[in-house]
Structures are given as C-alpha cells and as structure tokens.
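Journal club side-thread
Mid-discussion, someone asked how the predicted structure for our own chain would compare to the paper's figures. Pasting it here so we can look after the session.
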Amino acid sequence: MSYQTNEKYKTEQSNLPRHVAIIMDGNGRWAETQGKLRILGHKAGVKAVRKAITFALDHNLDALTLYAFSSENWNRPKYEVSGLIKLFIYVLNTEIKNLHKYNIKLRIIGDINPFSAQLQSNIRNSEKLTSKNNRLTLNIAVNYGGRWDIVQSVKKIAIQVQKGILNPLDINEDIIYQYICMHELAPVDLVIRTGGEHRISNFLLWQIAYAELFFTDILWPDFNDAVFQRALNSFAQRKRRFGKII
C-alpha cells in the first residue's frame, strides 16, 4: 500500500496541532458487532492506521503517536495477546519500506524487553532504517504505560544521582522530562480517543498535561479522514491558556 494524499481533506488552517496522539479503541467491539473474532477487528484497524498516517502527512503534522498495545493489555486472553503480537510483527515487516519511502521516521515507545529477541531486533532495524527521515515522526506505543514511562525516567535519574553526576536538589520537571519518551519532539497538542470511552487509560500521562482531548463514539476500524478532520476542527476552536489568563 501507499500513503496517497487526499485533496478533499487538505486544509489551510493555521491553528493546527503539531503532535497528535490517538488511543485506538474499539477494534474488538467492532468485530463482535459483526459476529467476528476480536483479532479480525485488530486487523481491520490496520487500515484505519494507514488512513491516519496519510491524513497526518496531508496536514504536515510533525508527529503522530498511536497507542497500539498498552502494558495492561497483557491481561487480555492469551490468544488475543498472541494474535496482537503476531499482527504487530506482520505490520512492522510489511509497512517499514513504505514508511521509509514516504520519509517517515518510525519510533517504538514502550518496554520492548518482554518481546522475543527477533522482534526486538526487527524494531531496532526498522528504527535505524528510518532514523534520518523527517517528514513525519510516527510513534507506535507498544507495551507502553504512562506510569511505566515516569518510573523508567526516575530510575535513570536515580542512577545519575548514585554515580554522583546529579545532585538530588537539582532535580526538577525539566530533568525528569529529559528521560521521558518523546522528550525531543513537539509536545502532544491533541489526544483523540475512539470507541466512546472518556478516559486516558494510562497513556502519555506526562506528555499530555496540557493537551486538548477529543472523544468520539466511532470504533477504530471506522476511523477515517472525516473523523480526523472533526477532531482538528474542534482543536482549532479551543482557547489554549496553559494556566494563564488570556
């Protein structure tokens, strides 16, 4: 497949987010409503991922972050978890050439240590292949949790303190942020959640402190350009104060 632009949904809005994060919810329910296995809903969701990437390219976003597999998802039935991991491997192997072709940098955020050595190698190779691309940064959150992200940051800082490199009294938000995932990217401006739920589900807890939130009842496999555009239109109408009085 290819990430072909869609002229219909291009916009001249100046008030666009630079970094959009999406909680892709509803794959399993989408499949169940059609009498299908839940894993088939996840496969259908891959098509929506491609649409979202194309839309991000059309609108010149700096970064798109997708919540693919949370650290809590291990608690799902084993057959579904196994299917999700296999699907992730398949998509990683089949999509990476196209991502590279369209100048997209791929980043995997999350704890990849529980994955097989082969999958970890595939992830590192995919990131290396696309490391110099600069049209869009695509972050895929896999085995990711916002609390894990903060904890791993604190652990790294503790090591710096233990080695005498860092004075505990010097620790502040900026220091912690340096070790948080995606610290080198533009802050997350907009979080979209599909599937009708109105919660964050342990996603990017630090990074979305001042992000705008957009919730939709649309299940993820049905997510398309029109829904993405509604989210951007909603964002454009928000007055972002960041704690100040405007």
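Post-session note: The beta strands are 19-23, 63-70, 104-109, 136-144, 190-193, 212-215.
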